[in-house]
Amino acid sequence: MRIASFVGQKGGVGKSTLARVLTVAAARQEHKVLLADFDPEQLSCVEWSAMRLRNGIAPDIEERVFNKLKTLRETASEFDLAFVDTRGLADELTKDISQESDVVFLPTGTSMDVLRPTLALARRLSKSKKISNKIVLILSKVGRSERLLQTARETIPDAGFEVLDNVWPERDGF
Ligand SMILES: Nc1ncnc2c1ncn2[C@@H]1O[C@H](COP(=O)(O)OP(=O)(O)O)[C@@H](O)[C@H]1O
Ligand SMILES: [Mg+2]
In 10 A of CB 79, how many CB atoms? Predict the structure, then answer.
């Protein structure tokens, strides 16, 4: 099972939304995909999943809640791909999940208020050899300011990290 996780130090940057849209896309491509929710307090993916079921929205998504890495590992024979959604606060569990992942996505806004703590987290995580080459930032909820976007695109590689070329634009609603 390959694992892509979404981690961050801030809430509201799009971790859950990106994990969900990628899970849906992978399910449409016939992957055996799991949406793993490591945020048992918020249960945001659980509610989302229940809402899809109630409204009969296809494709069916397998969504489960976890609080231990061990339990995620135990599902590895059932799925070929897992998208992991985590809490808005990076802790030891975040580090464990990141070490287990094939890619660790850090969604971030373009403003320095969000970018700075995200880069600080990236630095912290990259101290682990098992994580340092897996970190990829995603510019998320990007607004109309070309200047902010350009600055963010330059700041991230300057800090030594990768950023996706594609950005996740801000929309009126999701
Ligand atoms: N591209 C976007 N444009 C506008 N709103 C977005 C976008 N992506 C996510 N949102 C909204 O922003 C809020 C926070 O997103 P969420 O994915 O829950 O963040 P996180 O999981 O990092 O806390 C949600 O209300 C979500 O619907
Ligand atoms: Mg979330």
Answer: 20
Residue 148 has pLDDT above 90, yes or no: yes
Neighbour tally for 138: CB within 10 Å: 20
Ligand 2: centre distance to CA 85 (Å): 7
Q: Whose CA is nearest to atom 16 of ligand 1?
A: 14
Domain ranges within the chain, ordered by starting residue: 2-169
On the question of pLDDT at 174 being above 80, the answer is: no
* pTM of the predicted model as reported, rounded to 2 decimal places: 0.96
Pocket (CB within 6 angstroms of ligand 1): 8, 11-17, 88, 141, 168-171, 174
**If you search the block for the tokens 């995580």, which residue do you land on?**
125
Q: Of 9, 13, 17, which is best to mutate to test ligand 1, by the most ligand atoms within 8 angstroms of its C-beta?
A: 17
Confidence of residue 173 (pLDDT cuts 50, 70, 90): confident
Phi-psi region of 67 (alpha: psi -120 to 50; beta: other; left: phi over 0): alpha
Mean pLDDT of 109-129: 97
User: What percent of the chain clears pLDDT 90, i.e. is strictly above it?
Assistant: 90
Class of the CATH domain delimited by 2-169: alpha beta
